[in-house]
Amino acid sequence: MGNWLLGLPVLWLGLVVFAGAAVVTGAIYAAVMALATNERRRVAFSAVSPGMLPPLGLVFALVVGFLAAQVWSDWGNAQQAVNREASSLRAADILADNFPKARAARIHALVRMQILTAVRTEWPAMAKQQETLAVVSPALAGALQIALSLSPENDGQVEAQRELVSSLENALDARRQRIISSQSSVNWVKWTGVVLLAALTLLGIAFVHTGNRLTAALAMGVFAASCAVVIVMIAAYDRPFAGQLTVKPTPLEQVAPAAG
After folding, report:
1. Quick one: average pLDDT of 222-236?
2. Which DSSP category does 170 fall into?
3. Residue 21: partners with Cβ closer than 8 Å, 6 or more residues away
């Protein structure tokens, strides 16, 4: 699906998808019923076994289930990465206070810089799937270098330095996972497969109910509406950092004031 569609609020996304489903359903219904005006064709269409509909529906349901599992898993992983990054940065911010004020103040500033950069720069880029791992975060890299260069004066500072380095490394790893998650989406082949399976099932329903146009219209309408609901649900979560149901930087923003 296009970036413009996935970036719409859920309400507008639903309206577009339902309108598209209505157009496709109407076109299939009109085509089948027009062809069925010929007696020979009508008999051929009505002879199609209703037994073909359950397998079609099952295949469609399996494909949708796999897509839904992928999309919601990606969204959950993205949220988990953001939470882990925020927790790691908060821990690093607290541990920095165990060292000389000048070094601690520098680490505080770098942690805050990382958060502001993530919120103001990385989030908009991730929404467009333009953020990459090509550039390492300067703020996190700088904070890690300072942490590694510290000279502990007692056992407490030795342990604090170890935990500080570990927290910053976890923050770097969480950032990597966050950016990787921003690249995830359902590709056009899968979307095409879902739409084609839905269209084939609608065609099968039209064939089976050729003898009763009202029944055909009702059955096709119900199935098309179900397909539209499913597509809206998957599309709304397709890209973790785009659209109305995006993963927000709120956990990071909550850490920023303390790091200031």
Report:
1. 94
2. H
3. 198, 224, 225, 227, 228, 231
pLDDT of amino acid 126: 93
**Contact (CB, 8 A) for 115 and 253:** yes
How confident is the model at residue 242, as a pLDDT? 85
Contact 6, 181 (CB under 8 A): no
Q: At a CB cut-off of 8 Å and minimum separation 6, what does 185 contact?
A: 6, 129, 238, 239
Mean pLDDT value across residues 179-204: 91
Contact 104, 97 (CB under 8 A): yes
Residue 259 reports pLDDT greater than 60: no
The answer to whether 250 touches 192, Cβ cutoff 8 Å, is no
Q: What are phi and psi of 157, to 5 degrees?
A: -70, -30
Whether 79 and 240 have beta carbons less than 8 Å apart is answered as yes
pLDDT at 136: 87
Are residues 259 and 112 in contact, defined by beta-carbon separation less than 8 angstroms? yes
